[in-house]
Amino acid sequence: MMFKFYSISIVLAAVLMVTCVRNVNAQDANFFSSGETLSQDSRHSSANYNPGNMYYGGYLNMNFSKNYSVIGAQPLIGYKLTPELSLGTQLSFEYISDSRYYDKQNGSNYGASIFSRYRITPYFYAHTELALMSYKWFYTDGSDERKLAPMIYVGGGISQPISENTWLNAQVLFDVLNHKNSPYEAWEPYYSIGFGVGF
Predict the structure, then answer these.
(1) For residue 45, what are the CA distances in angstroms to 48, 81, 87, 88?
(2) Other CB atoms closer than 10 Å to residue 84's CB: what's the count?
(3) What pTM value is reported for the model?
(4) Are 192 and 159 in contact (CB under 8 A)?
(5) Is the pLDDT of residue 117 over 50?
(6) How much of the chain is helix, strand and coil, in % rounded to 5?
(7) What is the DSSP letter of 53?
(8) pLDDT tens-digit readout, 42-78
(9) Residue 89 in contact with residue 56, Cβ under 8 Å?
(10) 20 to 30 A from 116, CA-CA: which of 72, 84, 98, 170?
(11) Pick from 79, 84, 82, 60: which is nearest to 5 by CA?
């Protein structure tokens, strides 16, 4: 079903949330006390680029049904301005196979975005993102058309460490702009699961 991936994402996000909540109280004090010290240090060297503040990662999305399939990847790179606040950019690519209206049609969606994240706790973060996507639309007569769709995402996510410097992330975002070319309905959630290194 088209919502199979969404259901799996919700289950995994719930598992991550339970695990995070069990540990978050013990970690908050250390995180914010160390963050205060690092923030003071960063103010003294704010004009200097620090490679150690970079992080990278990405998301995978898969959606399979009888007549419609999507496989996508979203690599990202970010930079921590402070221990809590970061800015970054992300590329998006999706391969589509659609036979709902006509003989099988294949195509791709692609785009880019800039985002900001704020770590509320070691495990929870808020996320905002400005994206521009190029979508391929298929029609019942077999024709297709490419349309641009600007989007403004707001939402948040949870992170669970899987090694010393690697995190598993699950997030949910909402397209609040709701442009006419957006594939999302008003306030329809967009789920994604991925990983990060250094975040």
Answers:
(1) 5, 11, 18, 20
(2) 19
(3) 0.73
(4) no
(5) yes
(6) 20, 55, 25
(7) G
(8) 444 445 889 989 999 998 887 777 777 889 999 999 9
(9) no
(10) 72
(11) 60
